[in-house]
Prior knowledge:
With 477 residues, the protein is α+β, with helices and mostly antiparallel strands.
Amino acid sequence: xxxxxxxxxxxxxxxxxxGTTLNGLLERVPPGELARIKRAVQSEAFERGIVYEDDDGxxxxxxxxxxxxxxGGNQRAxxxxxxxxxEGAHAKLYRLWLQDSAVRRLLPLHEREERWIADLSQGRxxxxxxxxxxxxxxxxxxxxxxxxxxxxxxxxxxAGGTYVAPTVEDxxxxxVVPALRRxxxxxxxxxxxxxxxxxxxxxxxxxxxxKLKRFNIALAQYKDLVGGISEFHRHEAYFRSLGVDAWHxxxxxxxxxxxxxxYEDHPIDLVYRDHEINDMAAKEEQGxxxxxxxxxxxxxxxxxSLAAEFDHKSAFQxxxxxxxxxxxxxxxxxxxxxxxxxxxxxxxxxxxAPDGSDIDLLKWLSLTRDELVLKPNRAYGGEGIKIGRExxxxxxxxxxxxxxxxxxxxxxxxxxxVAEKDFPIIDEDGNLGRAEYFSVLGLFASEQRLGILGRxxxxxxxxxxxxxxxxxxxxxx
Length: 477
């Protein structure tokens, strides 16, 4: 049998950097057509709500890269498996936190969070369920792409991008891919799984596990939020288009009536929540009613479950510390070694270095700044991240001293370069140039599906909240 001659595939992986090939194809598109494509993408994206609200509520168009990132079938399957393994490891953290004081020290909670968890843990069903987003970097075009794949955090509640990712994929498939295929007819691309279908599968699987006889869903997110990306009302419409009874509700609109959850006169069977316990508990202290949310969490009727409270980046310290290795399977430990960066809370004392050697942690952190990144333990949106090699030694040491003075609030991770990719820059006349962007992935996984959110930025901290853009991530047939 003659071996395949496609320049795009090798065993389900990309043969070479397909991004370079796609840029070359775009260069063959006439400037007038490129200008038209750019306007069409921008117009449809704004019409379909691909916008990010500033803190004052002003919507701004989210930039969309006109060149997609593309992965092969084996790459997609591998990312799906690794994401599921990491999700299973995260599901163990709640039990470990309850049982092990050393884990509690590494995953510190606010006092009000601890009160809620102590209350909700009583008589609770022993199941953990997530719908979240793992953020990682990988270079599909590298011959060593597996080694380049590094995960850097997990967002197990309020994972954004579930509407943005499939919408941007659809827009790029509609407006850009046909122009590429006129010059490369065998370039067959398709969407990855819609993250909203991933969520629906998680909810349906959990409903089956609970043996529910009905499937009414509350999508719980405050309705008075300002800023960010608004997606929950779109999820309601999407679920209803599939015949699922779903309502976008403010969690304070849910009522507990004789042990049952209601939204207005609609009985609710499962709640998908956008908010952490800490936030709800703070509002409860101000007199807000969260009895129904408490019931949902205690009864196992909430996605994500209590284990999602351990969204700390220091969870990766549990995964990368020898003293906790016995809590995890051989497969989980292999994934940690290959894809989880060495992580430590910033504090005085001794620890193990990435090579396993015993070190004075603070002294070693000061001497090794070029190999490290300093991050807030529980912040999101790229807030507060400091890359050691981009700071002067004095500024790095000041940042470390500040972190020591805020126990449990800061972590350091081993620095791994974020994938850098050439993306086309097209002006209003259709003239095409190129610029280097840093690009990361957000992965949404269920048992059968994988949705992917691509992001890109000229900054090394890649986040839409930091004025980054969105990249369609497509699958090569």
